[in-house]
């Protein structure tokens, strides 16, 4: 199962605010032996958001979406999700009660707009101010505020995806390869991927230290062990200077 991330807001694209959610989601997924497959950053553009949601809803991916669920005119997420799913926005009675309990008469006329959710939406509890996020299918929509959003993601992982934790443990191992030009290692990389299908690699030449390559492979534990043994043998047979830097992360 793939996990995706949608980050919403003009303030992210114009640099006024720096995203903090990407690293936080990766950390929380890795704690459950899960990984992030993709991320998209979208501005406050109605048409683009609708198309983005239509595309992601057409997949089986689990998607966490941050931002745009408030009550101001630039908060477009609720309406765009409804349009993408071809369902109406409607007052969610439980969300209405939560907002009224928290804010009383001050819930009206504005805060209560946050209880207008796509038909059939499920609530995500918000321990900070009780205004919930919401879920539609395997898409989960939370505020852009980290102190609210991150506990909500943790709640989702624990309550809706705990069965996935540890299903397949994906690990990564990395080496520093010294004294080599990256292009000369292409045959090795191609042979590695051919012999150990299911393993992914990354090759990152050091731009400050000449002929130093940060090289890594990633995969399910048994695949990683087999590929690592093959790679170590290749290094030795071809007199390639190498130092392991990170093992099984």
TrEMBL record:
Residues 4-164 form the MoaB/Mog domain. The lineage of its organism: Bacteria, Pseudomonadati, Pseudomonadota, Gammaproteobacteria, Thiotrichales. SMART domains: MoCF_biosynth. This is Competence/damage-inducible protein A. PANTHER family: NICOTINAMIDE-NUCLEOTIDE AMIDOHYDROLASE PNCC, NMN AMIDOHYDROLASE-LIKE PROTEIN YFAY.
């Amino acid at each position: 199962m793939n996990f995706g991330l949608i980050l919403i807001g003009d303030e992210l694209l114009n640099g006024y605010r720096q995203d903090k959610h990407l690293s936080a989601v990766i950390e929380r997924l890795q704690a459950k032996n899960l990984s992030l497959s993709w991320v998209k950053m979208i501005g406050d553009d109605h048409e683009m958001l609708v198309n983005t949601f239509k595309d992601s809803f057409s997949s089986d991916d689990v998607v966490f979406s941050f931002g745009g669920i408030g009550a101001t005119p630039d908060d477009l997420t609720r309406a765009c999700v409804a349009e993408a799913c071809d369902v109406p926005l409607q007052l969610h009675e439980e969300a209405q009660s939560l907002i009224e309990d928290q804010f009383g008469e001050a819930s009206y006329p504005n805060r209560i707009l946050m209880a207008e959710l796509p038909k059939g939406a499920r609530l995500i509890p918000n321990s900070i101010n009780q205004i919930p996020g919401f879920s539609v299918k395997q898409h989960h929509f939370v505020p852009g505020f980290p102190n609210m959003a991150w506990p909500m993601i943790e709640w989702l992982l624990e309550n809706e995806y705990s069965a996935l934790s540890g299903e397949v443990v994906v690990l990564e191992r990395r080496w520093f390869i010294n004294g080599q030009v990256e292009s000369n290692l292409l045959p090795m990389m191609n042979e590695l991927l051919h012999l150990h299908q299911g393993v992914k690699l990354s090759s990152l030449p050091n731009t400050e230290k000449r002929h130093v390559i940060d090289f890594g492979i990633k995969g399910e534990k048994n695949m990683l062990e087999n590929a690592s043994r093959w790679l170590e043998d290749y290094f030795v047979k071809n007199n390639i200077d190498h130092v392991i830097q990170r093992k099984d992360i």
